[in-house]
């Protein structure tokens, strides 16, 4: 009896160590179709799987961005001597830019104001879960690019803005998963 108990205990310990040592990897289900649309889905899924993210630390926030994007700090923090309240992340092909404005409490993102040769084409304001959410799109008059933004603000004035500049709707779609990861990774800090 002791031999069986000892053997079962050893097997349980071995199983526990073996299962704890395994790495978890995300796998994408690939449809078994041969049309060009499914090939594009497979290619897009493979690209999303291979993206490695880096963490950027601003004055009052951290955010994850694709590691092959370049980083351009924009607005110096108004409440801290070091760090930035807004940053632009540019894709290696230059076809999209991710934008974040996340000050300590609130502020005005002067670096995304409407410029000469641009036109605001859409603007909506809604209340979602007690937050005021503004969404707007700015297009270049010559059609070379569009910029879309989403500003979220609380009653007390605390705000943040996410944005994406894109050269075409195809570019927007191509980088959609990375942009959503970027938005969802934001961590804001207070005092």
What percentage of amino acids are in beta strands?
25-35%
Number of H/I helices: 4
What is the end-to-end distance? 62 Å
Secondary structure class reads alpha+beta
| Spatial extent as radius of gyration | 23 Å
Strand order of the largest sheet: 3-4-5-9-8-7-6
Your description of this structure?
The protein is an alpha+beta fold. It has a domain at about 55-110 and about 120-190: 3-Layer(aba) Sandwich (Protein Transport Mog1p, Chain A), CATH 3.40.1000. The chain contains four helices and ten strands, in the order H-H-E-E-E-E-E-E-E-E-E-H-H-E. It has a seven-stranded antiparallel sheet with strand order 3-4-5-9-8-7-6. It is globular and about 40 Å long.
Blueprint (SSEs and pairs):
Elements: H1 2-20, H2 36-50, E1 53-57, E2 61-66, E3 70-73, E4 86-90, E5 96-101, E6 118-128, E7 131-140, E8 146-153, E9 159-166, H3 169-174, H4 176-184, E10 187-188
Task: Based on the model shown, name its key terms.
191 residues; alpha+beta; Protein Transport Mog1p, Chain A; 7-stranded antiparallel sheet; 10 strands; Lipocalin family protein; signal
At a glance:
This is Lipocalin family protein. With 191 residues, the protein is an alpha+beta fold. It has helices at 2-20, 36-50, 169-174, 176-184; strands spanning 53-57, 61-66, 70-73, 86-90, 96-101, 118-128, 131-140, 146-153, 159-166, 187-188.
């Amino acid at each position: 009896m002791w031999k069986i108990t000892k053997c079962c205990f050893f097997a349980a310990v071995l199983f526990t160590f073996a299962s704890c040592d395994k790495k978890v990897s995300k796998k994408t289900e690939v449809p078994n179709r041969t049309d060009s649309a499914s090939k594009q889905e497979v290619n897009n899924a493979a690209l999303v799987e291979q993206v490695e993210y880096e963490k950027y630390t601003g004055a009052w926030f951290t955010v994850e961005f694709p590691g092959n994007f370049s980083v351009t700090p924009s607005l110096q923090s108004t409440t801290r001597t070091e760090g930035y309240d807004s940053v632009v992340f540019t894709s290696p092909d230059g076809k999209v830019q991710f934008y974040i404005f996340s000050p300590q409490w609130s502020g005005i993102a002067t670096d995304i104001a409407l410029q000469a040769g641009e036109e605001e084409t859409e603007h909506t304001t809604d209340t979602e879960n007690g937050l005021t959410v503004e969404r707007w799109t700015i297009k270049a008059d010559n059609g070379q690019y569009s910029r879309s933004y989403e500003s979220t603000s609380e009653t007390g004035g605390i705000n943040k803005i996410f944005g994406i500049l894109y050269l075409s709707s195809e570019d927007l779609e191509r980088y959609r998963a990375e942009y959503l990861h970027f938005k969802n990774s934001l961590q804001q800090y207070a005092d």
